[in-house]
TrEMBL record:
Residues 19-166 form the Activator of Hsp90 ATPase homologue 1/2-like C-terminal domain. It comes from Capsulimonas corticalis. This is ATPase. SUPFAM superfamilies: Bet v1-like. It comes from the Bacteria. InterPro entries: ASHA1/2-like_C (IPR013538), START-like_dom_sf (IPR023393). Belongs to the AHA1 family. It holds the Pfam family AHSA1.
Length: 169
């Protein structure tokens, strides 16, 4: 069982290599105009309500599908060590920024702690995202673990968009 900060259960781990320098990949996580190009599921439009890229700051956003379905989410940043590491808690939210249950599950964890690390070699950046529920019940932990495959597919699509965005620069 791996441990990151106060995550003591199984975590989701996704690693991706981008053909871009670390500083650029890191910036893509911290600037609203950059996030709008890639964050979220394929086919969704990102709306940034708030982006305070600092420890204690919030990224509050909406995602709207082509059919008009709207979802809200937020990050609360815990650590920002440019350009090496980001630590933030993600949650679903309402338009006011209050934490809500996920629309797809009554047992999805309210909060997920994510640690993203960035390393560079020969102009390419290896980005690793590690995430796991915090303050979760047993049922919430089980729901999270049961969605690993779906989350891996979702992040693959999101990171495909990040790769396309970085290649366009």
């Amino acid at each position: 069982m791996e441990t990151i900060d106060n995550v003591t259960e199984k975590e989701l781990v996704i690693t991706r290599i981008f053909n871009a320098p670390r500083e650029l990949v890191f910036k893509a996580w911290g600037e609203a105009e950059r996030l709008a190009h890639w964050w979220g599921p394929k086919g969704f439009t990102l709306g940034v309500a708030t982006l305070e890229f600092r420890p204690g700051g919030v990224f509050h956003y909406s995602m709207t599908s082509a059919q008009g379905q709207e979802m809200w989410g937020k990050f609360v940043y815990r650590e920002i060590e440019a350009p090496e590491r980001l630590v933030f808690v993600t949650s679903f939210s309402n338009p006011e920024g209050e934490i809500t249950r996920a629309f797809f599950s009554d047992t999805w964890p309210l909060e997920v702690l994510n640690v993203v690390t960035f390393t560079e070699q020969d102009g390419k950046t290896t980005m690793t995202l590690r995430g796991g529920p915090i303050n979760a019940t047993e049922a919430e932990q089980a729901a999270f673990e049961g969605m690993f495959g779906s989350m891996q597919q979702g992040f693959a699509g999101t990171f495909d968009q990040l790769e396309t965005y970085l290649a366009s620069l």
